[in-house]
Design brief:
Blueprint: H1 2-35, E1 38-40, E2 47-49, H2 53-62, H3 66-87, H4 94-106, H5 124-140, E3 151-155, E4 175-180, E5 184-187
Antiparallel strand pairs: 1-2, 3-4, 4-5
């Protein structure tokens, strides 16, 4: 009986990961479609629209332009959080929607919060989503194999000086950069 229970839990864990993976990849496809990200096909040497994480990696390896880096920043930082909150009437992020889909699909219910528990902590589904999105982002923006050696960065500078005296600095605003050893650090926001 214990072995069956462990097997059932393992199967459910795999199913949650598969659903979250599908949600994250759908988000990435949506973002690549909106940004009109393209990569050069090795077989035909023509530009093709990115439809998978592998295509996005190829696009990043082939093109380190500011436009492509802005697309990567937007897909992984703006689209899942700010854009979804701005578009949806309930002000939900993509993570919230993905968690709700998993809960509905697998008929998950959570125990009520006890008095004195801290609010705002993540449940296990949110951890799976965040880890999966971060893994996809890290896989796509690896420097190995690129000719441009540019790496996208996200900063939250607290002062104008920390932001490099950027003209568009706002306190508490996230700023997007790219850096390379040869060219230094440049802001793309």
């Amino acid at each position: 009986m214990i072995k069956r229970m462990i097997q059932k839990l393992t199967d459910e864990r795999k199913q949650v990961r598969l659903i979250m993976k599908d949600e994250v990849e759908d988000l990435m496809r949506l973002g690549a479609g909106i940004c009109k990200m393209t990569y050069r096909s090795k077989n035909t040497n023509t530009p093709r629209t990115c439809v998978s994480a592998r295509n996005m990696r190829d696009s990043y390896v082939q093109d380190g332009s500011t436009f492509n880096i802005k697309c990567i920043h937007w897909i992984f930082h703006e689209l899942p959080y700010a854009t979804h909150r701005d578009v949806l009437p309930q002000r939900k992020s993509h993570m919230d929607l993905a968690v709700e889909r998993v809960e509905r699909g697998m008929n998950i219910t959570w125990a009520r919060e006890r008095e004195g528990d801290k609010k705002g902590h993540r449940n296990c589904l949110e951890h799976v989503y965040a880890k999966m999105l971060n893994d996809k982002r890290q896989t796509i923006i690896k420097e190995e194999g690129t000719t441009h050696k540019r790496k996208p960065l996200v900063r939250h500078p607290k002062t104008v000086e920390a932001a490099g005296n950027a003209a568009h600095y706002k306190r508490g605003k996230t700023m997007y950069y790219w850096s390379s050893k040869a060219e230094g650090e440049h802001c793309v926001s």
